[in-house]
Amino acid sequence: MPTILRSGPYRFYFYSHEPNEPAHVHVDRDALSAKFWLDPVALARNLGFRPKELGRIEGLVNEHEGEFLEAWHAYFGQ
Questions:
Q1: What are 4-21's pLDDT values in tens digits?
Q2: Rounded to two decimals, what is the model's pTM?
Q3: Distances (CA, A) of 15 to 5, 21, 24, 62, 72
Q4: What is the pLDDT of residues 29-62, one digit of tens each?
């Protein structure tokens, strides 16, 4: 489970056993979790985040989309 970024209370990562899915990132805070597709950025799943916080997280995903995609392709290949 490579961690790509820690920002405030959030941990952004992907699972090493998901290479057959489109590029995406998981984000956790405490017991809450969400998954975002990266190209284009879109919410795939939300497990407990409230809409306002989810919006802030989506902003972080947009801000770091390039480095997330770079990390994904470096790990799984093109």
A1: 999 999 999 999 888 789
A2: 0.94
A3: 14, 11, 10, 20, 10
A4: 999 999 999 999 999 999 999 999 999 999 999 9
- Residue 63: how many CB atoms within 10 A of its CB? 13
DSSP 21: S
The token pair that represents 27 in the structure block: 């984000």
All structural domains of the chain with their residue ranges: 3-76
* Sequence-ordered list of residues with C-beta below 8 angstroms from that of 23, at least 6 positions apart, any chain: 37, 38, 39, 68, 69, 72, 73
